[in-house]
Amino acid sequence: MERSFIMRNPSVLWFLLALAIFTLGVTILSEAFGIGGLSTSFIKTLGKTLCLCLIAVAMDVVWGYCGILSLGHFAFFGLGGYAIGMWLMYARTEEIVVNSLNEGAIPPTQQEIIDGIGTQIFGVVGSSEFPLIWAFSHSLGLQLLMVVLVPGLLALVFGWLAFRSRVTGVYLSILTQAMTLALALYLFQNDSGLRGNNGLSGLQNIPGLDHLGQATISMWFFWASAIALGAGYVLFAWVTSGKMGSVIRGIRDDESRVRFLGYHVESYKLFVFTLTAVVAGIAGALYYPQAGIINPAEIAPIASIYLAVWVAIGGRGRLYGAVIGAAFVSLLSSWFTGGGAPSIPLGFYTIQWTDWWLVLLGVSFVAVTLFFPKGIGGLFDYLVRKDP
Amino acid sequence: MRFLALFFAAAISLSVSGVQAQPTDLKAVLELHAEQIERPKRLQVGEVVEDLIALGTPEVTEFLQRWQNRELHMREADGQFFYVGEGTPIELIDVVSGQVVGTAEDSELKQLRPNAGVRRVLGSAMVQFQLSDPNILRRVAAVDSIARRPQADQLAPLLASIPNEPDAALKERKERLAGLLTARFGETTEDRVAAIEALSGELSLDVQAVMNQILTTRDAVAVTLPENENIAEVYEVGTDLSTAEAYAQLVSADLALALIPNDAIRTALAANIDGGFVGGVPVAQLNTDAARATAYTALAEVGTVPPLVTEADITSAVQSHVFYAVYTEPDVAVTDAANEALSEITTRVGMNQALDLTLDGLSLASIYFLAAIGLAITFGVMGVINMAHGEFIMMGAYTGYVVQLFIPDYTLSILVALPLAFAVTFGAGVAMERLVIRWLYHRPLETLLATFGISIALQQLAKNIFGTQARPLTSPGWLDGAWVLNDVVSISYIRIAIFILALIFLGLLLFILNKTRLGLEVRAVTQNPGMAASMGINPDRINMLTFGLGSGIAGIAGVAIGLYAKVTSEMGADYIVQSFMTVVLGGVGNVWGTLAGASLIGFLQKGIEWFNPANTLAAQTYMILFIILFIQFRPKGIVALKGRAAGD
């Protein structure tokens, strides 16, 4: 009775097809590789949206499938961004510093180069020394490893502590929120070694690729984000199907019963929590070079709550729901807050959407929770059911 | 006080003996120093002032005052000084007699305008006269001026003015100030030690400043430790002082050659490039410190650049010298007494700081208690996390602001605002429970998200109505100011009021929960809703009332918080995480648990801030980490509850 992975998950094929068509369409319309219908900044927005979809899928697995409402996954996202940002900033500054030092009569020593980079990067927080956490920032390989290791280890330690003492439900949500807040507050300090509230900036300039131009680089990142989303989708589809998927869903529905059946619930939860944190870190590492800047405000607890909102609106417990929710809400949000939506004059008062978008979002969020607990993804059920 | 009297006598005899060789009449002094008075220089005017003071006659005060106020005029014809009166031609007034002695045209007179520096010298000279002025305001001003800028020469006149001071309070101040001055400028060692010992019982900032001034040190370096200096401390190189710092001291004392910084080496090398080589080394190879040192040494041997200081030079130079700190005060007995007094003061200040910290912690704890107790009730009874709780706090604060728009009297408006804020947020809470939360009881995680939706909508709504700038919620006049125990311990009246408010609510809640029918039903539903329902309690009604009650208290907390912080649409969000922490830490659904949680968080935060005062962000980070770890050991909080809340 063992059916193939694809047969059990028909949605994976459909999703990959849709993603491929979308990517192809954007490529054809891009400035760098196509006819030029889409601006570079819009390509970046689309690329960022794909990264947000990826973390939303991760969030869906940890919440929609495993029942852990984590309010900390955006912290992992941010840590991934910081990890790649450190290399981008170091390598970029190194280029500039070496160029300017080479103009002098005497070639620079290694120490002079490092001091120069330190002054450039940490001048804004009144320092010039490299903190210990920048020890690997000179190497792209090591820093890429950090993208995976830092969020992974944090999730592993935090999850182990939390699950071991059987912290569940809303308690766990509050604890993850506290973790996020602690991290954000820590990063806000000037002596955190990550430039305090200035954050890391200039990340859109990829060292050594200046000659290519942003139009090309934005497409590269767009493709990378699309590939990451596709791979992440397949990975999570595999995790949530089969026997393991059943156990995970069992934990969501009744943790004690699964435990009494002999499964080691904590290990499953820890695995899901850590895996999704790693994927969140990767998504962040792809997102922030497109955004160009990362600062501690990105990690604030509110971001993680929005993540939960996307997943809930898109529909929990189905991976494509998370993708739809993240894409729909984040694009709609930038359309409304960017002033794209027309104002509604009521005669006595004009509704400016930049002011009222959050009210609309909040209210529609309550409405979705109350009336459409399955979210937008739930609409597909009707389609499927009506098919003969 | 006997030594004060002795001092007084000594000071008088001293000044009398100094006068004898001097002119004895104001006119004569003026004649002697005519040029200085006409064009006074700040540095030389002291001589004139000394002579004037030596006269000690009443008209001298008048003269100094008028001179300082630019009311002194000089007749250009003969260089005589006059005050001027009304009318044209201008009346001339004699500086000694005060009588009108003639008239002059405006063009014949020159008004004297001493500059600011000179006027300061005149002012401090006048202080001595003002100390005995019949007008108490002038005497107070004089004492204030001495306290601001204490100087050695003020001690004698200050002491002289004490016995005849009629005002008891001012006399006390004068005596205290005389003590401070004696400690620093007293004539004999015994006087100073006695004054210092008398001060060691105090902890005010000015006493600490005096002690620190006496104990000022400067760093010094010598080949051997000098015998005749008052040495504070001998530095151990490597522990008290790094080798680099020690060498820098040697350089600044001209006992060693200056280090050549890397920049200077680089510049020197760049300046001496000779056909692609520097000192025999190819330029392209100069990218290591070792190669640069080789090239530089070669240049130094030729004599083009100053020689390089090597590590060995530094070590031997540092080892052959002794580094120490020496008191600027030469008298050993005085510095010993001051050291002892300062350590006594420091201990006392430390104890008072602990008390102050306790008060701060208590006030923070009461704020957290007020903010969190409503959350704790709803969470405990209904198992529902209300993310919009912070927005209820904000609504309460805005209610207070709106009330103040209509009722200008601050006392009355606060009295109206408190119950009104309760009513508004009670209504909002009940509405929210009926419309949203009731449908989600079996899905607690979704309640969390739905209330979050309400939270962002309310926050944005408040922003749209009241704008983004902070709105004031003014406290009544009788809550302004602070209760000051001494220079270290003080607490503002608003914080005391919040503490009292928290106490009242603690009592009120305990009464409602333990002594009323509603409380009984609430406790029953908390423990077992099914059983409570079968006993005839309507859980729906209880849930609604509890939610209303919790929200109402949030509203009142909002008014209290708004009184000392600004009212903004984001103020609720600032408290929500702390409130969650308080509830989780304290244990759910229990008033005592919330109290314990709030106290722990309040004191902990203040304590960590005390260890690291510059960094409140770090304090919050460490506190949250502590809470996460604490939950590991007591997952159900400090006061664990049995019943429904304990079941999940």
Describe, in plain words, how this protein is organized in 3D.
- The complex is a heterodimer of chains A (388) and B (648).
- With 388 residues, chain A is an all-alpha fold.
- In chain A, the strands form two sheets. Chain A has a two-stranded antiparallel ribbon.
- In chain A, helix 3 crosses helix 12 and helix 4 crosses helix 5.
- Chain A starts with a helix and ends with a helix.
- Chain B is 64% helix and 7% strand.
- Chain B folds into four domains: 94 residues, no CATH class; 85 residues; 110 residues, no CATH class; 298 residues, ABC transporter involved in vitamin B12 uptake, BtuC (Orthogonal Bundle), CATH 1.10.3470.
- The longest helix of chain B is centred in the middle third of the chain and has 51 residues.
- With 648 residues, chain B is an alpha+beta fold.
- The chains are: A mainly alpha (388), B alpha+beta (648).
- Chains A and B meet through helix 5, helix 6, helix 7, helix 12 and helix 14 of A and helix 13, helix 19, helix 24 and helix 26 of B.
Could you give a short description of this structure?
With 388 residues, chain A is mainly α. Chain A has helices spanning 5-8, 10-29, 40-65, 73-102, 110-122, 140-164, 169-188, 214-240, 242-253, 255-260, 265-291, 301-314, 319-337, 353-371, 378-386; strands at 200-201, 293-294, 344-345, 350-351.
